[in-house]
Specification:
Length: about 290
Amino acid sequence: VAGIAANILANNPSLDFNAIKQRLLNFAVNDVNDGRGNTNLPRVQTSCEEYGYTPTFSLRPSSNHDNCLDVNYNSGDNVYVHPCHFGSNQKFKRGTPDADGYYAIISLYNNECLDAHPEGNGVVDSGDNIYTHPCHYGDNQKWKIDGGIIRCKSNGRGQCLDFGDHSSNVHIWGCDYNNGNQRVDFVENTEIRSIYHSGKCLDVNYNSGNNVYLHPCHNGINQKWRRGTTDSDGYYTLISEYNHQCLDAHYNDNDFYSQNANDYLVNSGDNIYTHPCHNGDNQKRRIEGP
């Protein structure tokens, strides 16, 4: 948060650093849900944009975590699924929501909008292609997350983004919460950067038992994190997009609370790595202070 506030302040020197930081800290985690109990990152974007900072996200089929929604620059900016590399043609930002909560999904690669192309009968319906097109903000370029699927506003709001077309293509199909081809995960393009070690990010070392360390930032999936559901005390898990495990403070096995043998103490010097999520206190954290 402090790093984001500093970036905002660099572009807006007349603003107050502490006020910016507090506003970022006050974002409600569960205001918008992506269907998995996680924060819908684009909700944060609107307020941040007031300060010139735009969070981004990638879209990944729930059925295949190795692939991402991709703008194919070799094929007229068609949209399809491609192995995740998190380049600009796999990153998107959200436009301003309209009165019904629908918004444009804008590619960082070409600054064009995700567009459901009406074919044949001039109406957006099942089988129509999805590509990017210069933004005009018509209903066929407006979308909304609804229970883990992405609904298009056009044609009665009954059509959704669907990964089930042939040859990895993405198209429009009638919305169905039970259709696995329509389930989508948001990958928040979020890195945890060190203030004291410039240019280094929190990194899951896949060569060392998923240990966590600082490594030069490279935009890889093992440096991407998302936030889990917040508990009543404001603590939450941080989940690696690389292995879907939680950041875990590894307790010393000789230290434990006598009143509950399942609650272990985390002390200074204990290691941090990723571990299958169990929602214990040693996997929960929150941002505090400067």
